[in-house]
């Protein structure tokens, strides 16, 4: 693992301050990360469910954290593709959490998947696959 939990938490606060609205880092390992989003009214859509963009944002930031655990603090690693399948309705006012796992990291690309869960449910509410572009080393 290239970074510690505390290094990444500080980095996200400093370099990606809007990221807090997408969730907070809970755990970090070599090639994986878990993040949690405390769902409130801004994350809900009509019909009383968590919005797709809220789940996508959580999944994306979780994948970013998992990737950085493998490549170090690279601010300009960016999402180039995000595919998400919404599997079931999350509980409206319960936190959601994401577990991101890196599947492959090369010199210029990283690929991974994320499962999103609604607190209290063992079945995932969404599944996402993502590709990140890794900038060349200077």
UniProtKB/TrEMBL annotation:
Q: GO molecular function of the protein, one example?
A: fatty acyl-CoA hydrolase activity
Entries under Pfam families matching the protein? 4HBT
Occurrences of domain Thioesterase (ranges): 47-123
Answer whether the UniProt record assigns the keyword Hydrolase to this protein: yes
What InterPro entries does the record tag this protein with? Answer: ACOT13 (IPR039298), HotDog_dom_sf (IPR029069), PAAI_dom (IPR003736), Thioestr_dom (IPR006683)
Keywords of this protein's UniProt record, alphabetized?
Hydrolase
Name the family: Belongs to the thioesterase PaaI family.
Q: What is this protein called?
A: Thioesterase domain-containing protein
